[in-house]
Amino acid sequence: MIPAQMHRLATRLGVRDGEAYTIVCGLVVALVLAVVGLPGVFRGFDPAGLGQAAAAAPGSPSTSVVDATPPTTESVTTPSLPSLAPSPLPSLPTSPSAPAPSPTTTAPPGTGGGDERPLGEQVLLAEVPDPGGPDDLAVGPDGTVYVVSDDDLSSGGPSALWAYSSAGDLLDTWTAPDQPATRTRGLTGVTVDPDGTVYVTDASTARLLRLDRAKGALVPVAEADDIAACGLLNLASPCEPGLVDSAPLLTDVASAPGGAIVVADRGQGTLWLLDGGDLEVLTTITDRLPGDGPIAVSFASDSELLVAVGARLATLPPGLPGVLQIRLSNGAAEAPNVVIDLEVTETPGGIVTGDSGRVYVALPTSGVVADVGIDQGDRIDIVGDGDPSFTGPLGLALRDRSLLVADTSDRIFDLSINDRPAS
After folding, report:
1. CA 60 to CA 85: how far, in whole Å?
2. Half-sphere exposure of 196 toward its Cβ, with a 13 Å CA cutoff?
3. Are 110 and 145 in contact (CB under 8 A)?
4. What helix, strand, coil percent values describe the chain, rounded to 5?
5. Rounded Cα gap, residues 283 and 276, in angstroms
6. Tens digits of per-residue pLDDT, 25-34?
7. Model-level pTM?
8. What confidence tens digit (pLDDT) does each residue in 234-278 have?
9. How far apart are CA 190 and CA 203, in angstroms?
10. Which domains are delineated in the chain?
C-alpha cells in the first residue's frame, strides 16, 4: 500500500501512521492467507481480531451512536467529559450521526433511574390530559415534574400547567389567567428556581407568570415590552435588532443556580432578565433573520448561558439554527459565541446542560434528541423506538441520570442518559 493511502487510512482510524502500517499490513497478510489457506501453525487464528485491534488502537475515535440495547454481559458506561472551558469556545460544526434506537418500556421510572438502567432506555412517564400540547417541563427540588401546555384556542379553554409525581401520577393542574379571546400560542416555558418557585412564560400575553401556592393559581409577575426596531440608525435604546418591528414572543424561561431568571423572546430576538417586578433587556441577538431568535435557554452555570436559536443571518445558506454561548459578568452579557451548528431543517426545541458538561438539544423536526459535547464537537442522536415513541421531542429537563422529554404526541418520556459530573 502506498504511503498516501496509508496516511488516509490512518486518519480514518485515528491512529499514527506507524500503527496504521502494522494494522494494515496485518490485514493484508490475513486476506492473503484466507485465500491461499493457513499453515498449520496458524490454525485457529481469527483474522477478524485484527479489525478489533484496529478499533481498539490508541486514539481511535469514539462511536457517535448510542447502543440502546441492554448489554448481555457487563454494563457499558460512557466516559465523563470535561466541563466547558472558562474562555469562549470556538464554533465547532457538527454532523448528525445515524439515530440510535431506544427500547421503550412502560414501567414507572420512579426517581429517574439509576445504574441498573441501560443507556438510552426510553420509559413512558405520563400522557397529558386536555388541553394537550406539552411544550416544556422542569423538575422541582422535591422531584415534582412541572409541564406546560402550548395549546391554541382549539382546546376550548385556557392553557394548563400540570404537576406530576416522579412516578408520573398527575398531582395538580393550574390554568393561565386572562389569556386573549384569540390566540395561537399558550404556555411555552417553565422553570423552578433554587427556592422552589415555579415560573412560566405565556406566549399569548408576553407575560412571565408565577405559581402562587397560597392562592393555588398562576399570577402575573412581569410583561415583556414591545420594543422598537433598531432600524438603520439604532436610534432607540434598547431596541429590537433589524429593520422589522416584531411583537414579543416568549418561548422559554431558565433559572440560574444563583436564582437569576432569564426569558427568551424569539419574536424580538431578545433575552430578558427578571429584575424585581420588571423584565429588563439582558442582551439582543443580532445574528438572526427577522422574527426569529432565541427559542430555548439553559444555564450551564451562573456565569454561562446557552441559547438555542432559530434562523441565523450570518450563515451559508442563511437561516441555519444553532446554539450560542453567552458569558455573563457583573450583570452584563458578553457577545454570543456560536458553539453548535445545526442543519437547516433542525429547528431546535428545548435545550438543557448536563452535569457532565454535555448539552442536550431537542430537535422536533428530526424526531431526535441530540447529545452534543460542545468542547469536543461530537454528537450522538437518540431516537425513540417502539410503541409509543418520539414523534417530535420539544421540552427537556434533567433528573437523576435521565432526561425528561415532552413530545408532540402528548406524552412525557423518561430517557436514561446516565449523565454524570465530569471527574
Report:
1. 24
2. 6
3. no
4. 10, 35, 55
5. 18
6. 444 444 433 4
7. 0.74
8. 777 889 999 999 999 999 999 999 999 999 999 999 999 999 999
9. 12
10. 3-55 (no CATH), 92-416 (2.120.10.30)
